[in-house]
Amino acid sequence: MSNPSIPQQSAAADETAGPLTDLDMDPPTSSFWDEVPAHEEPIIGQAISSGNRRTSVAPQAFYPELNHRQSIDSYRGPMSRRASNSSSYGSRPPPSGGRVRRESKSSTYRASDTEPEEEDPYPHYQIRRNHSIARSMNSFGSRHSRHSDLPAGFREDDGDDSRDNADRFAVMVGYLYSRCVAQGWFKSENISGMGVVSIRMKKGIYKTFPRADPNSFDSEEIFDTLQTWDNAVAALNTEVAIKITSKVVQAIMARLYVKLSSLSWLFFERSCLFTVYCFTSHRSRHAMDIAIDANTRIQVIEKVSHLGRSRKHQYAAFARAEKCLIVWSDEVDSVIVNAETLEAKMVSYVWASAAHQEESLMTKKAVVISEKVEEFEGASNSSELGYLPELGEKAVPEETEEQLWHDAEAGVGPDEWSAESRKTRPMMLYAPIITGLAVSFNLMFVGLGARALIKEFLLDGKTLRFLLLLTSPFTFVIAMFFCISIVGNIWQLFGPVAQFYQNSAFYSGKAPERVIRNRLPHFTIIMPVYKEGLEGVIVPTIESLKVAITTYERQGGTASIMICEDGMQLWHEEEVETRKAYYDRNAIGWVARPKHGHRGFLRKGRFKKASNMNFALAVSLRIEELMDELRPVPDENEQTWVWTDEDEDALYQESLAAAVEESNGVAWAAGNVRIGEYILIIDSDTRVPEDCFLDAAAELDASPECAIIQHESDVMLVIGHYFELGIANFTRRINKAISFCCANGEVAPFVGHNAFMRWSAVQEACFVDTEDGCTKIWSESHVSEDFDMALRLQMKGYTVRWATYSNGGFKEGVSLTCDDELNRWQKYGYGCSELLFYPLKSWFTKGPVTVLFKTFLFSNIPLHSKISVAAYISSYYSISIAAVLCLLNFFLIGILEDVLSSFYLESWKVFLTCIVIFSGAGNICSSIFLYRLKVESLGSSLVSNFKWIFFFFFFFSGMSWHVQAALVAHLVSYNMLWGSTIKEVEISNFFKEVPAILKRFWPAYLFAGGQIVIMIIFSTSLLPEAYRVTSMTAIIPLAVQAACHILYPIVLNPWLMMFSF
Length: 1061
Fold this sequence. Notes:
Residues 1-125, 138-163 are annotated as: Disordered. The protein is α/β, with parallel strands linked by helices.
């Protein structure tokens, strides 16, 4: 969901050229632009004439996208230190040295004498990262991509630097510099704080504006300043960066120094009460933020050289030593707009501060910064320190400030602020009522059948017919889902709806209060990837994540992305290098496993998602173990011992290198693969809300018993043909039905994506796989690994929660073809059979019912939820037996109708009942329910539901054989495999589709064709009249099944049916 105030970026911004839409403005009226040629740069030490006209731009929200880099202070517990975001699996820590040589003639700075010189026809200033900064991102056993890391619209060819390329970068960096001068952003008279603009030409090579004048008397100092700047920008690894030293920045930095002076006295006076962290030491892990407004905090680093260790997704940082602001961006197009928007916020901040400064200084003794104050403020940052509040705003309300000091003196600790103060969520009891009524209806139907048998017994006295009661348990289970649907429809019409906007034990209908009692936690976004396209699928998802990460980092937290690459080692070399380069540019951690059979490696499981994530998590956990083993223990007698960021980075790289040696070259990995306190698990075709992490952090912090927050997902449309729209409608209705159940009190499901997970709970629920003796997080022996995970967590005492307050912000892709959707239903059916039954060959040794399902039945999960889950599982069996029962019904009704007991319910009646309940009443009640929730108007909802009736008629009527095949495959131990869902549009036509249909659906065609032949034979004179079937109630259900199985891949195929509705 796009925000008009946010500069929108292309999904493939790093790979393709694009127009400078944000820079298409009239250049400022400055003599600079006319005097400096495109290929030249201003020289520091010479006078530059420029205008001071300010360009008027309407303020916009400052939420740019950028490369991610993780902060060290974002981990808890055993993962308490930052991992380097630029380490690679299989590489040792880089040397810390690197002699820098100055070339006075060419103004080109190189970080190593060993690098070959490149002739540059134009004077410019650029830097090659020295080895102490350039941490290798190469994967084990691989080399860097030859793709250049240039901004969109400025990509170079694979050849040497050309005159045209130099001109392009010189023009753009000069233009950006002139814009900054015209805006008045370069006002500092101090050389260390002079304004600078840099654009990345290649990885580690930056075009910087301006350059030093060798003839200037202070050229050496300018040279050192510029080299420090370029080293810092290269370590940050961003596309473009600007150092701003405007008056408003100077004003904010001046106030910062005043605050630090007052804090020094405060820390001295209150040192006995609170834990004090050092603000001014560059060795301190605890950075400080300045709250520009309620949703924008800008980090403060000690000096520019520390820029590489900043939180990259904040997109800006104040440098205390140089008294400047650094703004950077992933795209050259947006950096000016982003800086202008941030400037407007800073001006508002300074203006509001000045208006209340005198009153604030008179009424406030000091600014209190501590963990206790953070708890009252309701917000904190990842550095475990509160941010500096705006001048004129009290850090603590007046009525609570004295109480804070009293509590501190009394020794109130964190334990008193935890469980007792958290609100207990109520248990909603509507679901037990609905389930109980459904069970009553089901028992009534069974009783009606028994009543029919008793009446017949009273007529003829035959007791043999009572054997039919043995089928009652099976019909009870099969009919349970149907009965719940009936009661649910009635409840949607007349039941209460207020609970949908409330919070309960298993449901979150409204966003939590954003009160974090400790620092903001670190989130790790885990995204399993198979062989999805980089440009079409992965890049748009990453861009969506980067916006959300930016928002969270501006709020004070940190987040990182970890990709579980299942296809990296399967691609050809060019594609592998392209992906590595993209992950490197965006600071994405990734782990790739080899193909099946490589060096004896086995990809276990029928659905490879679980084993893929297990492999990546095993690498991450092994690195943590090695870091714990290698991390030095401080000497108690050594008072000056410190552990710096550089030490932690070096330790991470060393552990990474040790881990790859243990893998014997099996694993590839790069970037930060450490796991934070919470996990967001998504699919590769996902969109996330811009502001979702803070709500999740608040909710998980307030509910320590909650292990998973599963968000309701909307649909992300890719192509918009009628099949995708139909499945999108079905997906939305299913999600609303789940919301209906959870709001009423059902235990929430875990669907495996778009869910926040508590990492400590996940580790607690891990198990030892009996097949290989390894500890696993996800079950590789179940297709439904998400159900297994949810069950293990609930058995450990945790809960799963369904959340709807994101209002459709989470989006997921749906199947684009009927073939792919069929694979999903087969996978779900197979998973349900795995949960319930062992394969037939194990029945004599283990029994038919699995230990997992027995555990579920005897767990502490509420009884009504057990019934609901069993009803859901039984729905797959209901679908699978439809074709077989219709065939059986054809013979029973057609030939034996006269002797059949009334206990038997013929297929025709079942067929009509399903149409009335699901297609009729279900659509009407769902529409009225959405209208009552004020989600959608009644008319549009009715139209949306009823226009898909024929679509779902063919969809469900043509699925029976295929779901049945999956259930039988599990029972007979047939190795049935599925790949990942197709997420990209594959243009097809008639000549491609027909062979594909025949190849995939020929068993179903044989089955349906046999049914048609049977109907023809038994309706003609080829058989005696006693064996002829002429009853329409026997023919219609079977004819519908046969026709829909034949037409399923035809009428639901958009490439064959080129029409839309």
